[in-house]
Amino acid sequence: MKKIAILKGDGIGPEIIDCAIEVMDKIQEVSKVDFEYSYGKIGGDAIDNFGDPYPKETEAICKSANAVLLGAVGGEKWDNIESEKRPEKGLLRLRKSLGVFANLRPCKIYDSLKDNSPLKPEYIKDVDILIVRELMGGIYFGNRGTVVEKGLKTAFDEERYNEEEIERIARYAFEMSLLRKQKVTLVDKANVMDSSKLWREVVKKVAEGYKEVALDFMYVDNAAMQLVRNPAYFDCILTNNIFGDILSDEASQISGSIGLLPSASLGEKMGLYEPIHGSAPDIAGKNLANPLATILSCALMLRYSFKMDYEAKIIERAVEDVLEEGFRTFDLDSKNYLGTREITREVVKRIK
Amino acid sequence: MKKIAILKGDGIGPEIIDCAIEVMDKIQEVSKVDFEYSYGKIGGDAIDNFGDPYPKETEAICKSANAVLLGAVGGEKWDNIESEKRPEKGLLRLRKSLGVFANLRPCKIYDSLKDNSPLKPEYIKDVDILIVRELMGGIYFGNRGTVVEKGLKTAFDEERYNEEEIERIARYAFEMSLLRKQKVTLVDKANVMDSSKLWREVVKKVAEGYKEVALDFMYVDNAAMQLVRNPAYFDCILTNNIFGDILSDEASQISGSIGLLPSASLGEKMGLYEPIHGSAPDIAGKNLANPLATILSCALMLRYSFKMDYEAKIIERAVEDVLEEGFRTFDLDSKNYLGTREITREVVKRIK
Ligand SMILES: CC(C)[C@H](C(=O)O)[C@@H](O)C(=O)O
Ligand SMILES: CC(C)[C@H](C(=O)O)[C@@H](O)C(=O)O
After folding, report:
1. What pLDDT score was predicted for residue B71?
2. Is B51 annotated as a binding residue?
3. For residue B119, what pLDDT band results from cuts at 50, 70 and 90?
4. Where are the domains of chain B?
5. Which CATH superfamily is domain A1-104+258-352 in?
6. For A40, which of A58, A127, A261, B195 could close a Cys bridge (C-beta 3.0–4.6 Å)?
7. Residue of minimum CA distance from atom 7 in ligand 2
8. What H or E segment, with its residue span, contains residue A218?
9. CATH annotation of A118-255
10. Helices (H) and strands (E) in chain B, counts
11. Which residues of chain A have a pLDDT value below 50?
12. What is the DSSP string of B203-236?
């Protein structure tokens, strides 16, 4: 019995999660595995119901599960709430409480969607990047505050990492790279930041245990540039929380298919899976959302949390087939598209 | 008499600066203005000569000038020096000592170079962005250190801004936007960082004095994405030191002409002008470097430090003409190009 906590969240969250469940149900059917779903509230939805973006009830549900599937959080409705109570804060607390320190954001070019990239075809040939972003430290969780200093309102946020935090995410990146092209690029700002220098030091040490992996270093400004100019250069990008946030969004656009990009956030035992796109309140409830990133996040869940690589591939293959046969969602082709539910049906049909 | 301190720096620095001086000499000739040049060392060149990337001698030369023209700093040779003595540190100290808090990085598409962008033509139509980056604060100048905590090596860097620092750069952005499309986008991470929240607060207040300017807000991850997906959205981007570093490099690639992008760093009375590209040691001394960004940086110097807008336009027009007539540098067309000196001669010829 595999227990999955399901957090639909806000905006298009509920409808894309419903689609993902249809796919998981079909997987149960064809592979004779048992999933048990339990449902919790998060983000704005949880604020409206419990006055807290990550209530204790939800935490309990997640902690008694083997994996968590998340839709999306946030929306204008909650934008003016004080920051400790905002939907995003719920997401950060969720990550922390599950201990998921490794955020994996694959960015690949779907052959059938090549033309969707803003980049010219010759620039995106062979692009297949895995961003390994540290998710439980850095400026997201460091000291912060607002004080009055020499009569002036002053605010600060601290980037902070210790060697243990760096080592565990570095190991992750090297392990992942073994399954890929054996290349890790550490992205940092070591010409300015002390924390970056510690990253370099620790990552070099970890690299000694992975002689077959090529390690190189790149400043974050240069990386933001190379992602546009020569994205095929990268295999695994290893980086801190905030740089990973920025670079993974940039990379997703380069792929031309942000509506298709899943993510996995992993810790010692728990996995959190979510699409990398947001809650898109403007199209919520209209059967226009692209459910494929969430469906592909289920594939990552099967692979990483349940070691069901075979079934993961079945889902990934089904999605690729649907795209290759020319089916499109609204974000990919606003003239000729299938609705959220209809494209899901096409995927489900192809799972056997 | 206009006094210009000239810091050639490392790599291609000396040769591109020599070209810029040829252009300035021609401007002296045609416009009867007098420039007085004085030369100082910076970066690796200064380390080799004085054991310090920004020696007192250089500081004195800069401070007695009306404006500073800089080539580029850095190179592998100095990469293993301890961080307080690295070439980059010289650059940061230079900025601080001149009090240049506003870094202006224009990013425009040259009609004749449209095809050089990695982005498809329909994505870069009408792109003309001015990035206004805060240059004297934030994580570049905050507290940092490495300590042992609970037995673990721990490093930290602090992002810190007070309302005065934010206000002065915000005013700059609004003033600049008045000369453009009257639109300012503040880029921050206000859903996570306290300093970003202070930026929003202060910038909103400054905006009240500029009713004709449209102000909006964007998270930095989204901005990194929109620069690829819809760069024409932006007019002025106002942001902190580190986000400005990342986004301006990304934007420069989008333009397809990083070898052409100048920058100005301005303070109460001093201006520092430099190309945004680096020192490119691999092509140094080969007459291959593109001098146009440095030449265009002189145009910015004329405009901002000497109020010689007419002469600035003469330079800009000369560069555009050279490009429109089909002349290219090595970075733009590695098959059919003019050398560093030869393209400069073409520019000089067109200044009358
Ligand atoms: C919503 C926000 C706090 C979050 C982040 O910055 O981590 C998001 O951008 C993401 O990347 O998952
Ligand atoms: C060399 C480095 C310290 C510098 C910076 O980060 O400011 C450079 O990248 C720049 O943008 O001028």
Report:
1. 98
2. no
3. very high
4. 1-101+263-352, 118-255
5. Isopropylmalate Dehydrogenase (3.40.718.10)
6. A58
7. B245
8. strand A214-219
9. 3.40.718.10
10. 12, 12
11. none
12. HHHHHTT-TTSEEEEEEHHHHHHHHHH-GGG-SE
Tokens 């980056």, located at residue: B133
- Model pLDDT, residue B293: 97
Ligand 2 mean position, distance from CA B185 (Å): 22
Q: Is the pLDDT of residue B256 over 90?
A: no
Question: Of the candidates B123, B195, B245, which has its C-beta nearest A221's C-beta?
Answer: B245
The dihedral built from the CA positions of residue A203, A204, A209 and A211, taken in this order, carries a sign that is positive
Q: pLDDT per residue over B36-87, tens digit each? A: 999 999 999 999 999 999 999 999 999 999 999 999 999 989 988 887 888 9
CA of B164 to the centre of ligand 1 (A): 29
Compute CA distances A174 → A61, A168, A203, A207, B66, whole Å: 32, 10, 10, 8, 51
Which of chain B's residues have a Cβ under 8 Å away from the Cβ of A155? 160-162, 194-195, 197-198
Instruction: Please check whether residue A328 touches B, CB under 8 A.
Output: no
Same topology between domain A1-104+258-352 and domain A118-255: yes
Query: Which residues of chain B make contact with A75, given a CB cutoff of 8 A?
Result: none
The residue of chain A with its CA nearest to that of B195 is A155
Query: Per-residue pLDDT tens for A318-328?
Result: 999 999 999 99
Q: What topology is assigned to B1-101+263-352 in CATH? A: Isopropylmalate Dehydrogenase (3.40.718)
Summarize pLDDT for A137-162 with one digit per residue, the tens.
999 999 999 999 999 999 999 999 99
**Are B160 and A161 an interchain contact pair (Cβ–Cβ within 8 Å)?**
no
**Is residue B286 scored above 80 in pLDDT?**
yes
State the pLDDT at residue B79: 82
Chain B positions touching A196 (Cβ under 8 A) are 157
Structure confidence at residue B84 (pLDDT): 81
What is the distance in A from the centroid of ligand 2 to the CA of B231? Answer: 22
For strands B67-72 and B2-9, give the pairing.
parallel
Ligand 2, from A189, A194, A221: best to mutate by most atoms within 8 Å of Cβ? A221
Q: Which residues contact A27 (CB under 8 A, 6 or more apart)?
A: A33, A35, A298, A302, A311, A314, A315, A351
The pairing of strands A128-134 and A144-149 is unpaired
B56 at interface of A, judged by CB pairs closer than 8 A: no
Please tell me which residue of chain A has the smallest CA distance to B227. Answer: A250
